[in-house]
Specification:
The chain is of the alpha+beta class and about 280 residues long. It is built from 8 helices and 15 strands. A 6-stranded mixed beta sheet has the order 1-2-3-15-7-4. The protein is globular. The two termini are about 30 Å apart.
């Protein structure tokens, strides 16, 4: 399948394992301390509009199918079904430090917390898991301190600067040095596809008045096109991450609806993609 790539270098790269086709960032893999991937629609056993690699229990899928999809992800990450730890995404800027006690929450064990859009750990073997269908995945790695994090940054999380809050939490809770942190902005909706209303645009203008020309295109009639990729990159840069350590996607979920789930392209008839990150 030929992908529609947007401007920028050709990242992330496509990888294959058995029937699965998934995406990885070379810069994250080259740290040598993590396993990671971002799923596509290919290589699972879900059916219909959920086909085939749906990794959500809340989109109407058969549980056994989702279980098998997670087992396939775990195999690639050299883990098991009981190693996943989920976010519980409600478009907040809340971040939870997850520990050994959280292992399996979301798959093998009950998810007993809520309103968590970012998770952070220094625990080896936990598979941090966050879920997407247009919103922005944010990956964080400190190879020196061996600390990792994942965040779900939709427009609300982006207005709230969840990426910057993740960086700050890595520093305050684990003693990370910002100069060591490597980040990646995962596949999500691009500016060309993401039309927003004036009330949403006003929140971005209020939060980031100096960036209006960088992140917004005013189309008239109260409509704007929002660049979530650029906004999140600027947030990370402002938070102290060097520009060369911010690896941005060039794959839009909405431009590639046969390859990546997109809420906007499918009008809500879709499964979820997954971002997964594990300390070796």
């Amino acid at each position: 399948m030929e992908l529609i790539r947007k401007k920028g270098i050709d990242i992330p790269v496509v990888q294959r394992y058995g029937e699965m086709e998934y995406l990885q960032y070379p810069a994250l893999a080259e740290t040598g301390v993590v396993e990671h991937l971002f799923t596509t629609r290919l290589g699972g056993i879900s059916e219909g509009y959920l086909g085939t690699m749906n990794v959500s229990y809340s989109r109407g899928d058969v549980k056994e199918n989702v279980d098998e999809n997670f087992r396939r992800v775990a195999t690639i990450l050299n883990g098991s079904f009981s190693d996943f730890v989920f976010t519980q995404q409600t478009h907040t800027d809340n971040i939870r430090i997850v520990t050994e006690e959280d292992r399996g929450k979301g798959t093998a064990n009950v998810l007993d917390y809520s309103d968590i859009d970012g998770i952070l750990t220094n625990q080896k073997g936990l598979i941090l898991s966050a879920f997407f269908a247009d919103c922005v995945p944010l990956f964080f790695i400190d190879p020196a301190k061996k600390v990792i994090g994942l965040a779900h940054s939709g427009w609300k999380g982006t207005v709230l600067s969840i990426g910057a809050k993740m960086v700050d939490k890595m520093v305050t809770e684990f003693g990370c040095d910002k100069e060591d942190i490597i980040t990646a902005i995962g596949p999500s909706i691009c500016q060309d596809c993401y039309e927003i209303s004036a009330d949403v645009a006003e929140q971005f203008i209020k939060a980031y008045p100096d960036w209006e020309k960088d992140i917004l295109i005013h189309k008239g009639n109260g409509k704007y096109q929002l660049d979530l990729w650029k906004c999140n990159a600027l947030i990370l840069e402002k938070a102290g991450i060097a520009k060369e350590r911010i690896h941005c996607t060039n794959l839009c979920t909405c431009c590639n609806p046969a390859y990546l789930f997109s809420h906007r392209a499918s009008k809500g008839m879709r499964g979820n993609l997954g971002a997964f990150l594990k300390l070796k």
